[in-house]
Amino acid sequence: MTDIFDNTILCKNCGEEMEKTLVTKSGYQLRAVTCPKCEQVVIHPADSSNLEHYNTIKDKTFHVKLRMVGNSHAISIPKEIVEFIQHQEKIMDDMVRLCFEDMRNVRSKFGGFEDPRP
User: Fold this and answer.
1) Buried b (16+ CB within 10 A) or exposed e, 20-48
2) Could you tell me which residues come within 8 angstroms of residue 75 by beta carbon, excluding any fewer than 6 positions away?
3) SS3 50
4) How many CB atoms are located within 10 Å of the residue 18 CB?
5) pTM confidence score
6) Domain 4-44 adopts which CATH fold?
7) Which helix (H) or strand (E) holds 40?
8) Which of 10, 75, 90, 96 is most solvent-facing, going by the fewest CB within 10 Å?
9) Strands, E assignment, the chain
10) Would you list the domain boundaries of the chain?
């Protein structure tokens, strides 16, 4: 299947050929085309939909239990979050990086880091 942005897109205001670009919203990079003449911006519909989905997940609070697993504690990451990350990253590592942000907050990072082992 071809992508809509693989085709030439003309500006509906001035008829100029639009140029591919990236637009950042909420820390999220969106594919877009922009008109060099009138500066109209059109965001890719799939990326716009993904941003909307991200905003609904971002504003949602998940309550999960802290469990004992061997000598460690574990929390479960809701399926909705994991599926969203997998959809965006296409490949998600099994490893997650955890770090303290402050005394009551732990941040997790999925992928995007190197294995420190040689």
Assistant:
1) eeebeeeeeebbbbbbeeeeeebbbeebe
2) 64, 65, 66, 67
3) helix
4) 21
5) 0.61
6) Ubiquitin Ligase Nedd4; Chain: W; (2.20.70)
7) none
8) 90
9) 19-25, 28-34, 41-43, 66-69, 72-75, 96-102, 105-110
10) 4-44, 66-110
Contact 41, 33 (CB under 8 A): yes
Residue that is written with structure tokens 């997790």 in the block: 108
Token pair in block for residue 92: 């998600």
Main-chain dihedrals φ then ψ at residue 30, nearest 5 degrees: -115, 135
Alpha helices in the chain (DSSP H): 45-58, 79-89
Report whether pLDDT(118) > 50: no
Q: What backbone phi and psi angles, to 5 degrees, belong to 73?
A: -105, 150
Q: What is the pLDDT of residues 49-65, one digit of tens each?
A: 888 888 888 888 889 99
Token reading at 35: 């008109």
